Amino acid sequence: MHHDLWDYDVAAPPLLLKAKGRDAVAVGSKSGNLFLLDRDTGAPLFPVEERAVPKSDVPGEEASATQPFSIQLVPQTFVAWGPTPEAKRWCEEAVSKLRYDGIFTPPSLRGTLAYPGNIGGLHWGGMTYDARLNLIVAPVNNLPAIVQLIPRAEYRDAQKNDKFGMEFAPQWGTPFGMARRLLLSPQGLPCNAPPWGTLAAVDANTGKVKWQVPLGKFGEVPGTINLGGPLALPSGVTFIGATLDGYFRAFSTATGQVLWEAKLPASARSTPMTYTHRGRQYVAVAAGGHDPKFGPLDDKLVVFALPK
């Protein structure tokens, strides 16, 4: 990012791999862009385009005129959605009150639609790599958020009178505090069409998305918010928890097909690990949950034995 105003930090740990026969590093951004770079020189292995993005309308703020785009793993144009016509109209009316000029619309005093929101895109769960298939596998979020700047003199009153459960940040030393939240309809569902979370595989030689499938379920809707990492085994199986629904799943790394799933005592907002003991391979994952609004908290380490 240039001059990050959206909390689009590069939260995903870098991933070391081979791409186009060269030592490479993959870098994922909350903006939904995946960058593949030469590990020795930092040069992009696939095109990185600097595109013009919206200007800030906040006095004193100079947003960057361009931002970098490369391999894109989330939709970057928002379209209002709802499970019913009434819910869709509610979302359309909510968005009409906000500033939205496409991705990288800067935060504003009236309120800005940020899409994707501040949890990504790609997030701190990171990515995994199957060297045999030469595939990068990454969990992705696809959610809209509202972000609003609040003049310093009005900040405490705004925080005290909040009716929406906003997340507030005082941003001391600046003229404005900040408030933000996910853009959810009265039904509690995001105002964009599902899936709201996916697992995606990118061919490291071509930069093309080989497959992208819903990750988890939000009630009965495929694809949920996810925060946690994947683990690809040489056998062609990728394990991941990460989802709000509290399941641990195995996917075919080649196709994205769900091969197996098991319910955990809490959501596994973590990255699994594998080890062998007395000739048997195991996969372990920490199931602790994250936020009691979205399921139980716990402190379990859950271990599964792979077939002999």
How far the N terminus sits from the C terminus, by CA atoms, comes to: 46 Å
CATH-defined fold name: Methanol Dehydrogenase, Chain A
Number of helices: 2
Which architecture per CATH?
8 Propeller
- Helical content (DSSP H or I, runs of 4+): under 10%
Task: Give the spatial strand order of the biggest sheet.
Answer: 1-2-3-6
- Rounded to the nearest angstrom, the radius of gyration is 20 Å
Please give a quick description of this structure.
The protein has 2 helices and 23 strands. It has 308 residues and is mainly beta.
Q: Overview of this structure, please?
A:
The chain is mostly beta strands. The chain has a single domain (15-144, 183-305), classed as 8 Propeller (Methanol Dehydrogenase, Chain A). It is built from 2 helices and 23 strands. The protein has helices at 85-96, 155-160; strands spanning 15-19, 22-28, 33-38, 49-52, 66-69, 71-72, 112-114, 128-130, 135-141, 145-151, 167-169, 176-182, 197-203, 209-214, 217-218, 221-222, 230-232, 237-240, 247-252, 258-263, 273-277, 280-287, 300-305. The chain is globular and about 65 Å long.
Question: Features of this protein?
Answer:
single chain, 308 residues, mainly beta, Methanol Dehydrogenase, Chain A, four-stranded antiparallel β-sheet, 23 strands
Secondary structure elements and their pairing?
Layout: E1 15-19, E2 22-28, E3 33-38, E4 49-52, E5 66-69, E6 71-72, H1 85-96, E7 112-114, E8 128-130, E9 135-141, E10 145-151, H2 155-160, E11 167-169, E12 176-182, E13 197-203, E14 209-214, E15 217-218, E16 221-222, E17 230-232, E18 237-240, E19 247-252, E20 258-263, E21 273-277, E22 280-287, E23 300-305
Antiparallel strand pairs: 1-2, 2-3, 3-6, 4-5, 7-10, 8-9, 9-13, 10-12, 11-12, 13-14, 15-16, 17-18, 18-19, 19-20, 21-22, 22-23
